[in-house]
Putative 2-pyrone-4,6-dicarboxylic acid hydrolase
Amino acid sequence: MVIDTHAHVFLTSLKSVSDARYVPDYDASLAMYLDQLDSNGVEKGVLVQPSFLGTDNSYLIECLRNSDRLRGIVVVDPVIEIERLKEFDEYSVVGVRQNLIGKQIPEFQSLVWQNHLDALETLGWQLEFQRNITDLPPILEALKGYNFNIVIDHLGRPNKENVPGSSAVDEIVNIAKRKNNLWFKVSGWYRAHVDENHFEFYASLFEYLLDKLGPDCFVWGSDWPHTNFEHEINYKKSVEFINRLIKDDHLKERILFDNPKRLFKF
């Protein structure tokens, strides 16, 4: 079986936040997503709250309520009460996402954030980040006292500076070796800030991390519907990508099923 750990659902009728970097002009509904899963032989999926919808997770929760094949990652304000998070937990939400592209790194030492992080630890939720690899080491160091899982989206959205063996990449490797709670989503290779050879660059970084850390901290995500890249990528190409990247069937089973089953509580 295959589990897709990163996809978004939304409707044009939903209100976007005022400072959204990008707002799609089409629907990506639950029915459309489930059809993609069925058409591509994928058993289960993880819905990640899209950034342009902010902290209004209502449609994501509605989707979770209407399908037992899914888990959810929400976007919340850190001031949220744990009782509200417990309500989300009942609907198969398993974590929180921080999209930090173009934003300041949160003050994790503040009382608000410490309370929020304690709540995540109590619930056994994960904390997911979208940020370039270069900026991740100080974030991970600030969270080193916590035992919840930390997930890095899109392999850290690498750029030309993040080659295998670079200082930032090796800092990530060293942090991951010290703790067993750091995970990487093998997804969104087309979001790497390099030239047209996205696949080759991404593959070299993935293979380096795999060699240094072993296979148990990687999961795959389609990144459907590939916002901002809709005219270049589709679900089938995302499946072709992972099949091209990982040819060993045993390794593929671990990354596409065994690991996400454990990480996302399926």
In short: Residues 3-264 form a domain with the TIM Barrel fold (CATH 3.20.20.140). The two ends are 12 Å apart (CA to CA). The chain has one domain: 3-264. The mean pLDDT is 95.
